[in-house]
Amino acid sequence: MEMWLWSETETRTRQWVAGGSRPPELSSLPADVVSSWVEDRKFILRGWCLIFSVLATLMVLSVVDGRLAYLQGSYTGFLGIWTDCRKHKCANLGQVPVLIHMSMGFMMLALILCLTLLPTMCLSFQPVFRRLTKIDLVFSSLSFSVGFLIVLSLTLFVVNCETLQPRPQVSYLVTTYLCWAAGALMLWTGALSYLNHLGIWRKGTSLKARRVSNRRWALQQNTSRRISQQQSDADQEHTVDLPSALNPSSLSKQSHTSFSGQ
């Protein structure tokens, strides 16, 4: 009985996902059971976005070291955004690096947005924020902004290095590639957050998610039917086991005997 009920519910759920009308069995489902899979999917995808954002932030923080490239030739030394010339040999460009200063400003803004995004995403898992329907859109905008600022900052830095005259030999350090990866990861995080806001994967994941909810519903229905069946059987047994004195035939016999005795 349980397997038949589960198979029938799954078949009608597939028809619903394929574009058919909602089966009447699912109409009796509680609202929290029907919509729980949507909320769970949003939280799971938002959790992945949080993980990607943390990784990207750690990668961006590597820029604090300051060294992004090493120049050889007319300008020998390290070049970066916040290079500590007291610890490392800095390249003397002999001119005001306007592009590097712009790169520094964009990178600082990206770090500020990163440090704002992470606590906000952590707080979004609290029950008080579950009613905010466009919070994933806000996370998407912040992630896209951070990724764009990181890419813009690194682009300006690379343009500055490649346009030096006379042109030196430029060797980019691991920190530069980590920052590029951080920018790409933040852009990917923004895309995931936007898809989570649109619910574009709802149709693809609905069948698997509804199976869990429908299986719970089928088990609940089967349990309730068993309880009602047991109660019905108990009532029938109680009716059969009534004292024979209460039966009409017994009462008629008793009355006939009493009249005969008189």
UniProtKB/TrEMBL annotation:
<feature type="region of interest" description="Disordered">
    <location>
        <begin position="221"/>
        <end position="262"/>
    </location>
</feature>
<feature type="transmembrane region" description="Helical">
    <location>
        <begin position="171"/>
        <end position="195"/>
    </location>
</feature>
<feature type="transmembrane region" description="Helical">
    <location>
        <begin position="43"/>
        <end position="64"/>
    </location>
</feature>
<keyword id="KW-0472">Membrane</keyword>
<feature type="transmembrane region" description="Helical">
    <location>
        <begin position="137"/>
        <end position="159"/>
    </location>
</feature>
<protein>
    <recommendedName>
        <fullName>Transmembrane protein 202</fullName>
    </recommendedName>
</protein>
<feature type="compositionally biased region" description="Polar residues">
    <location>
        <begin position="221"/>
        <end position="233"/>
    </location>
</feature>
<feature type="compositionally biased region" description="Polar residues">
    <location>
        <begin position="246"/>
        <end position="262"/>
    </location>
</feature>
<keyword id="KW-1133">Transmembrane helix</keyword>
<keyword id="KW-0812">Transmembrane</keyword>
<feature type="transmembrane region" description="Helical">
    <location>
        <begin position="104"/>
        <end position="125"/>
    </location>
</feature>
